[in-house]
Amino acid sequence: AADKIDLIPQDFFAELCEQVIQHLNHKTEGINTVELYQRLEMSGVEITVSELAKLANIISFLFSTAARNHLSTEELVAALGSEVRALPKHAVQVIRHVWNEQGKAVSVAEEARNTDTVAQFIDLSWKLGVAMSSDTCRSLKYPYVTVTLKVADPSGQVTNKSFEMTIPQFKNFSSQFKEMAAVLETV
């Protein structure tokens, strides 16, 4: 994915770096690589969503490692220049600028951050449906609930996780959420 940096225009790369920094500073829930991918695709850049997500992970790793090691802007740029596969000049310029402007805030956030290894819940949506028939069964007529969870993994990638439940399963699921809400009210 790192070799795809050459394909990405400097302004898009800067936006990706900014989104990564915002996520590392806990100002956003995640990095919207799908939206950025769609804009890149419309501008004629040939890159896949997974390649863009890998690139976001690389940038996130780069900035969080620099923060943990308290690297100055010049130390970070020197480390990037010493790599076997040097980054394109425009990418180094963007990284230099973003780190110079916001690197200290990431270092503070990185120190305060405990090592999150679980995804962060962002949103939940559900819808009720009825399966009328299928190839193997002419008359189902059973209701079901489709639940979609929007989560950001520890690297900041936002994904949707969907699953279906029967009505009794959904009622149990709902009652568990009510129990959690009741417990949180006491905190």
UniProtKB/TrEMBL annotation:
GO molecular function annotations of the record: NF-kappaB binding
Annotated ranges, domain COMM: 120-187
PROSITE patterns: COMM
Functional description taken from the UniProt entry: Scaffold protein in the commander complex that is essential for endosomal recycling of transmembrane cargos; the commander complex is composed of the CCC subcomplex and the retriever subcomplex. May modulate activity of cullin-RING E3 ubiquitin ligase (CRL) complexes. Down-regulates activation of NF-kappa-B. Inhibits TNF-induced NFKB1 activation.
Family annotation (PANTHER family): COMM DOMAIN-CONTAINING PROTEIN 4-8 FAMILY MEMBER (PTHR16231), COMM DOMAIN-CONTAINING PROTEIN 6 (PTHR16231:SF5)
Protein family per UniProt: Belongs to the COMM domain-containing protein 6 family.
Name used for this protein in its record: COMM domain-containing protein 6
Gene this protein is translated from: Commd6
